[in-house]
Design a protein that fits this description.
Blueprint: H1 3-8, H2 11-30, H3 40-64, H4 70-78, H5 80-92, H6 98-115, H7 118-128
Helix pairs in contact: 2-3, 4-6
């Protein structure tokens, strides 16, 4: 987490620089794949994914750190793939199989582990080593 950067700079600045630097790092390999011819609908979808699905989502995530603790935002971000799966199954009629069910169980498990109080782990660790 760029917590130290967020103390000095606005989240929009951090997001902008991270996207720019990521693009510069990616630029040397961008020419390796041929760009297909796209219609206007495809270009609009790509622009929406870049701005809405990447740039704004990262910006809102960084902005949320001003209002929520890092552990809370971590738990919320752990639910993101689970939410995407539920939406794709209900709205897009995507098939769900054993791999997806296993992934959902792992996501829920990690989320519940993150929710456990830190003192619980410290107490158990001290009991084991005493």
């Amino acid at each position: 987490m760029p917590r130290e950067l967020l103390k000095k700079f606005d989240a929009r600045i951090v997001t902008g620089w991270s996207m720019l630097l990521g693009g510069i790092v990616f630029a040397p390999v961008a020419h390796l794949s041929q760009v297909p011819s796209l219609n206007m609908t495809s270009w609009i979808a790509i622009i929406f994914i870049i701005t809405g699905g990447t740039m704004f989502s990262y910006l809102f995530y960084l902005q949320s750190l001003n209002y929520l603790t890092a552990s809370t935002t971590g738990m919320l971000s752990a639910f993101e793939p689970l939410t995407a799966t539920i939406i794709s199954v209900t709205i897009l009629n995507t098939h769900i199989g054993p791999a997806e069910i296993s992934g959902a169980i792992l996501i829920l498990g990690i989320t519940f582990l993150q929710a456990l109080p830190k003192q619980l782990f410290v107490r158990r660790h001290n009991q084991v080593h005493s």
